[in-house]
Design a protein that fits this description.
Distance between the termini: 20 Å
Strand content: 15-25%
Helix content: 40-55%
CATH topology of the largest domain: Rossmann fold
Largest sheet: 8 strands, mixed
Number of strands: 14
CATH superfamily of the largest domain: Glycogen Phosphorylase B
Structural class: alpha/beta
CATH architecture of the largest domain: 3-Layer(aba) Sandwich
Order of helices and strands: EHEEEHEHEHHEHEHEHEHEHEHEHEHHH
Length: 370
């Protein structure tokens, strides 16, 4: 089978989709599936039992990746198996030139919102046309949250049977609670500080600037509070400039491998999610698996997972974020076991078989909407 996603697996990147695809490929290989990943890079490679096939050296936009996929499919008419993409537009070349292959897409939220915010109304219009064309010809569309499922069923009611909800999985053997003091000593975090951590892309829709400003206000009341921001993106330079003006209070850290992230999440006191839109903030689930509570906005699956006072807080507005981070750090006693127990259903041992069932149904349906 072919997994399709426009990232370079050898380059560290703050991306929930990359984490999803790489973890899914490992699970599929473990379950006996032959997996190839079509992505971005310069050299083919074998990665943990998966064949990586670069279709383009580098890209400036998602449209570059679609064009590269179009060339690849045109030049490889003998493709076999099932195609699983992470965006509907990435399937367009397969719909046009490999019609006999069954196709599945995972919808990681409402992507048209992000396209409009980053590239404007015209790009969003073009994306929505590609989305409509693709979904009508896709056998199954996996939605990672109830909100995402509700949006697409409402927008495309005639395609309702194709949509199903399967959350993103997390590696419960990797994301585990660690001895906080020991891990902090290993990675150089002060033993007695209250560590607030943000992980994600430094993009406007993630609100990293708001998190930093709320933290500075918090630090004015609590000198032991410390902020770590792990990621990259268009706002990285602005965040670094601001962090230099408050030297020693904020760490801006490049994306790290999953093994390092698991330890960092375990060393943190609270994880913050301030997104305006989100399909399923995987890092929040990974943090909970590490026994660390989450304070986040009402996005994706968080309202279903977070039980206020038990494993974190869900806020109704961004204006409440700072107050509830403070409450989580200084006014609430958290139990590691309750945090971890709240996300056991998201283990890949449950999620991967559900995705395999979707593949089987897609193969039986043939081309679905064709």
């Amino acid at each position: 089978m072919l997994l399709v996603s426009g990232f370079n697996p050898s380059v560290a990147r703050a991306s929930g989709i990359k984490a999803y695809v790489m973890a899914l490929s490992r699970e599929l290989v473990r379950l006996g599936q032959d997996v190839s990943l079509l992505g971005v890079g310069s050299e083919p490679a074998e990665i943990e039992g998966m064949d990586f096939i670069p279709v383009v050296d580098s890209i400036q936009s998602s449209f570059d990746f679609v064009r590269a996929l179009n060339r690849y499919v045109r030049n490889n008419q003998g493709l076999e198996g099932l195609v699983h993409a992470q965006r509907p537009d990435d399937l367009v070349p397969f719909h046009r030139k490999a019609k006999r292959l069954p196709k599945v897409v995972t919808l990681h939220g409402v992507h048209s919102i992000h396209v409009r915010a980053r590239r404007g109304a015209l790009a969003a219009w073009a994306y929505r046309r590609a989305e409509r064309y693709s979904l009508a010809r896709t056998a199954a569309a996996i939605c990672v949250s109830k909100d995402t499922l509700g949006y697409f069923r409402s927008r495309y009611p005639r395609l309702m049977p194709a949509f199903k909800m399967i959350p993103a999985g997390i590696d419960l053997s990797l994301f585990i609670p660690h001895d906080k003091a020991k891990v902090r000593e290993e990675i150089g975090i002060a033993p007695n500080c209250k560590l607030v951590t943000f992980v994600g892309r430094f993009e406007p829709e993630k609100n990293p600037g708001l998190i930093l400003n709320e933290y500075l206000s918090l630090h004015g009341r609590h000198s032991d509070a410390h902020l770590a921001m792990i990621g990259n993106g268009q706002l990285a330079d602005d965040l670094r400039d601001l962090s230099r003006t408050v030297k020693g209070l904020v760490d801006i850290i490049d994306p790290m491998p999953q093994e390092g992230l698991a330890r960092f999440l375990s060393a943190s006191n609270v994880i913050v999610v301030a997104s305006r839109h989100e399909g399923l903030p995987t890092v929040a689930l990974e943090a909970l698996a590490c026994g660390t509570p989450v304070v986040g906005t009402r996005v994706g699956i968080l309202p279903d997972v977070i039980k206020n006072g038990s494993n974190g807080y869900v806020v109704d507005s961004l204006g409440e974020l700072g107050r509830y981070v403070e409450k989580a750090l200084y006014q609430t006693d958290w139990e590691v076991d309750k945090c971890r127990e709240s996300v056991r259903e998201f283990g890949w041992d449950r999620v991967a078989p559900a995705i395999l069932d979707t593949y089987r149904s897609a193969r039986k349906q043939g081309q679905g909407g064709e």
